[in-house]
Amino acid sequence: MTTDPVRLWSALGVLGLWLLLLAWTVWRARRKAAPVGPLGDDVVLIAHASQTGFGEALAQMTAQALRDGGVAVRLIAFTHLDAETLKAARRALLIVATTGEGDAPDSAAGFVRRVMKDAPDLSHLSYGLLALGDREYAQFCGFGRGVDHWLRAAGAAPLFDPVEVDNGDPGAVRHWQHSVGQALGAAAGPDWTPPAYEVWRLTERTLANRGSPGGEA
Question: Domain 41-184: which topology?
Answer without folding.
Answer: Rossmann fold (3.40.50)
